[in-house]
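COURSE: Structural Biology Practicum
ASSIGNMENT: Worksheet 4, Part C
STUDENT ID: 0417
INSTRUCTIONS: Below are two proteins. For each, the amino acid sequence is given first, followed by its structure token string. Answer the questions at the end about the second protein only.

PROTEIN I
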Amino acid sequence: MNKRDDLIIQLRKEEFLGEITNGISTEELFQNTTLRPILKFQNNLLIELFLSYATKNKNVFFTLSHEKKCIYIDRVTIADTAFRNKLIGVIVGLFSVEEYLEYTKNSSNLNKRIINMLIERWKSQLQLLEKLPDN
């Protein structure tokens, strides 16, 4: 590994999240050893990205009911390609070279996992997304 890779892994503290058992798929292993720790590490930035997106899109999100906010999160995260690609870039940018090479073997499925985990993360932290940002 090079210095960058060592630094990235040290920042994430190689904190494995989720179950790691014999017989799990390589995708699930990658999810638990790489994706979940990065999502946790990047949580505050990902929340701010969503708040910025919602603000730039006429603040509609902030006027919705709890249930409709969940639907909004699903819809914009899946339907807005530019936003989705930005979110994926925030995650992929913290891969080591080795992790990136593993990611490229099945990036389509791993991108779906990233987006699904992010959607669930935002929904579970909806209280952090409910007030208007200070801008």
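PROTEIN II
(use this one for the questions)
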Amino acid sequence: MLQLCVDSFVRIFGTIGLITNQLTKRDRVYDDSGAMFLAKLSRQPKQIADIVADLAREFGDVPVATLEADFREFAADLETDGFVVSGRTPAELDREMPRFSYQMTNPKTMPLTRIDMSQTPLTSTAEFMAEHFRKIPRVFGLQMEVTARCNERCQHCYLPHDRNMAEMETSLALDILDQLVPMGTVSVTISGGECLLHKDIDQILRRARKNDLMISVLSNITLLTDEHVALLKEVNIAQLQVSLYSMKAEEHDAITQLPGSHAKTLRALEKLIAADIPAQISCPVMRINQHFYRDVMAWAYQHRIKAYTDFIMMARTDFSTSNLEHRLNPEEAETLMRGMLDYDLEYRAILDAKIPPETPEVRARKPVCGVGVDSLCVAADGNYYPCSGFQGYALGNAKQQRLQEVWEGSPAIHKLRQITNASFPDCLQCVARPFCNMCLVRNFNGNGGDMFKVSRHFCDIAFLNKKIVEEYWQQQAATAK
């Protein structure tokens, strides 16, 4: 018998088949017969003989013995990398099924990709899929802001604290999740505001699971109850991301402006760990906590939680910039980045990968990011936006339009798809471009709605990053000799 792992997800895009696993972070892409084989995998146990018989009807003149041998080889290869399990009985399959646990040898495996295409010069699944979506845009991932209400008032937040406190109607949320199924969407991120404030968060998460979506949750978890823990376990989320600003309660609470939030966040994290629910910690760093992020990283690694440092703040979606008063200046950012080499394992892992830079010619034809190409956001009031921070650039509204209509027919989204790195000629030739994460929404929010104007602050950070990274590479090379 053969069964798709609970953490594996399969999507067929025309003649292309994708399988991805939220536990191992591995992906594979297949074309032609491989995609047809992939389409036969199921969350329900199947006899291999039944799968082969089904394939025989599609392959016509291919001998059944040949089909069986090829499919068994295909399945064995997938099982080796944890995409499927095999066994003699459903009970045996259940015993062999990999599941997330903080007691695993490596509970947060770094992303590994592999591509299985018959003819392609591309070197990774991500690169292939990005190229595919540029030609045929698809909603690969959707962020759903189920409520605009939040019980915290974080100093750095890009969402205005006085915005309309809308809550998405449950019927609308469920309908949008249903619309994702025929579109082949893989993942959905449930967020807010604070998503646990939504009265029907249980219905929303269960519908996402019913629709076989990879589920991520963004929450401050201060409202997390035992019932929420049981729900998150039931729907098998990919991860829950939470911000932790300091191991000093007074520093954390000063940023969230919610007294007691630090203690509540830590207690909730301990509940998630005890229940083996995968959590990820983001530590946004600003002036008030720039000397305390190291303790957050240490706590996370001690508890085997993936964590990363984030100091790239952007202006609010209403174009106000008062939150940027808390942003690190370039000198403070340089000190932070140098410290991250010692204390942030995610940052160092990226540098150690040493991905070769693209040529300006290759970079020029690519979009700046995936918004409008493979991703989208829907806010609590039903408005569709390119991403959660891009809420000054509406694409349509879910109350009046179907998602497919917005994705295919919105003039605003078609305008967005015309923007490539070539739209920024100065950036294209900049020596710091490979070390820069130039972002349309950061431009847009920080410059009164002008997405083509790049703020000097981010250029300064890119040049600092270039200097620090190149020094690090030189030191590594010298040590290796």
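ANSWER KEY EXCERPT:
Q1: Confidence is low (pLDDT under 50) at residues 108-123.
Q2: DSSP finds 19 helices and 15 strands in the chain.
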